[in-house]
Amino acid sequence: MTSTYSLRAASPAKTRVDAVVVGVVSGDKGPHLCTAGADVAEAYGRKLRPLLSTLGVKGKAGEVAKVPTNGTINSPLLVLVGLGADESDTAAVRRAAGVAARSIPNAASVALALPASTPEEAAAVLTGHRLGAYTYDRYKSAKPEAGDPGTVVVLSAEARRNEMEEAFSAAQVLADAVIATRDWVNTPPADLTPPAFAEAVAEAHGALTKGRGAPEVAIEVFDHEQLAEMDCGGILSVGDSSDAPARLVRLEWAPADAVGHVALVGKGITFDSGGLSIKPSSSMTGMKGDMAGAAAVVQATFAIARLGLPVRVTTYAPMAENMVSGTATRPGDVVTIRGGRTVEIANTDAEGRMILADAMVLAAEDEPDVLVDIATLTGHLQLALGDRVGAVLGSDDVVADVIAAGRVGGEAHWPMPIPEEMAERITSSKVADLLQHDWVRWGGGLYAAAFLREFTAGLPWAHLDIAGKEINSGGAYGHVVPGATGFGVATLVEFVRRFVESRSEV
Ligand code: BES
Ligand code: ZN
Ligand code: MN
Q1: Which of 15, 44, 126, 166 has a CA-to-CA distance to 175 between 20 and 30 Å?
Q2: CA dihedral of 429, 435, 437, 442, whole degrees rounded to 10
Q3: How far is the CA of 445 from the centre of ligand 1 (A)?
């Protein structure tokens, strides 16, 4: 069921919908309704405090309580969601909207009285609700009843301001991109082989660019033969292990008023068995998500184009399946990356850096101002930072910009170093220019980043290692549901938006 969303300046007490959602703040003097729910608090008057107390509502994040209103307000159901201590915390607003979405999945009409007085907050309510309501049921025989599309009204006293509507529709674009990313990452790997993935991107591109006034994004899809002609030995060294051949998708958004040029590269391993250096079974679960970086850069690019951001974006999504076969790359093989650098393969499970190397060389050839790559690259950095915080490595200022962008987008990233000794380790091959992997267990995520740096042509660069962040293998929290998360899309779009802003100031 796809809902329609609108932004309106209306009273939550007077609005007539199936359910009204109101945020609860955990104040020093006990919980209270957020400012947006003031007239609901007024309607309940003195009855509110004892009601909250009986319900055990404290205003903590993640908390939710449903109350039949019996005519106290115009809607029959009141849903209270916790916001935590600070009602101006946009991330908490986004999470609460997500919790609210899941608590009343069958309401045909909902009004949200959550903090939404600034454009950022209104955007957070919208994305939080849409992403929190996300489900993936393509392969379920019993699908939820396809009733009439629901309506969701985001209440805001500032609804009539232009910037509010603008932020609201920009948030729709972002939510679309995250949802499309989740759909791709959730797709079973047999149905999203490299050719199928490239085809899905081409189809989405077709829909995006169709019709008058649609954004003009260029797309190129390179197949096995073309990749061979382009000397993309890294992509082919992985892709040739599979019956499903490799692809490389290149997108370009180049508006006439571009203030600069950003290159995006995303890892698109549609399934990672480890190759001949095969993974243990338990590590292979979830490896359909190893294309999450590619999905994120593609959807971020489409979102940037839809938003009409005045910046040139060139995006590379190398796609390959890492399988076990008679044509698989062996440890000990030497592979030549585009541009001529040779790499000694030590572990065929370190396949991400091989496909990224070619793609980054290509990206650098376009001479962008900054290069950002995103990849489910190493379990090492998942072990270090867990499954909700991404690692960022590379040029200090770009790393800082990524972290700041993530904060706005509601995604956490943490800086990790590329220590000097890594340069020695990656060049320690006795037969080739670079050693792909050295079997030293320590700092494997930093080694991988040092390896990738070799292919950046010295450009300002950030590498986002999002291993473990692409799929939520636990329960739902906030706007993040079980399964694919769409991690990285919000950060990339915000990163590019801020890049434009920084260039426009001078
Ligand atoms: N796709 C994996 C990394 C990964 C791990 C993604 C966990 C998502 C969740 C990657 O290709 C891989 O196998 N990395 C190796 C690197 C090693 C061989 C240097 C790893 O993590 O062990
Ligand atoms: Zn992988
Ligand atoms: Mn691997």
Answers
A1: 15
A2: 70
A3: 9
The distance of Cα 212 from the centroid of its chain, to the nearest Å, equals: 29
Residue 446 half-sphere exposure, CB side, CA atoms within 13 Å?
16
Point out the ligand nearest to the CA of residue 467.
1
Q: How far is the CA of 430 from the centre of ligand 1 (A)?
A: 24
* CA-closest candidate to residue 458, choices 355, 342, 368, 335: 368
DSSP at 156: -
User: What integer is the mean pLDDT of 351-365?
Assistant: 99
pLDDT-derived band of residue 505, with 50, 70 and 90 as boundaries? Answer: confident
Mind telling me the catalytic residues? 279, 353
* Ligand 1: nearest atom to the Cα of 352: 11
- pLDDT tens-digit series, residues 319-345: 999 999 999 999 999 999 999 999 999
- In angstroms, the CA 465 to CA 392 distance is 6
pLDDT at 149: 66
Provide residues with CB under 6 Å of ligand 1: 272, 290, 347, 349-352, 376-379, 382, 437, 444, 467-468
Half-sphere exposure of 199 (CA within 13 A, CB side): 8
3 state DSSP class of 411 = coil
Q: Name the residue of 270, 329, 356, 376 to mutate for ligand 1: max ligand atoms within 8 A of Cβ.
A: 376
Ligand whose nearest atom lies closest to the CA of 185 = 1
Residues around ligand 3, an ion, CB closer than 5 A:
272, 349
Residue 369 structure tokens = 């101002």
The CA distance from 321 to 243, in Å, is: 9
Q: Tell me the mean pLDDT in the region 137-149.
A: 78
- 427-476 pLDDT, tens digit each: 999 999 999 999 999 999 999 999 999 999 999 999 999 999 999 999 99
pLDDT tens-place string over residues 190-210: 999 999 999 999 999 999 999
Query: Which atom of ligand 1 approaches the CA of 448 most closely?
Result: 19
Interval 391-423: pLDDT, tens: 999 999 999 999 999 999 999 999 999 999 999
Q: Is the dihedral of CA 461, 465, 470, 476 positive or negative?
A: negative
Q: How far is the CA of 488 from the centre of ligand 3 (A)?
A: 20
The residues with which 82 forms a beta bridge, in sequence order, are: 24
Per the structure block, which two tokens stand in for 330? Answer: 């062996």
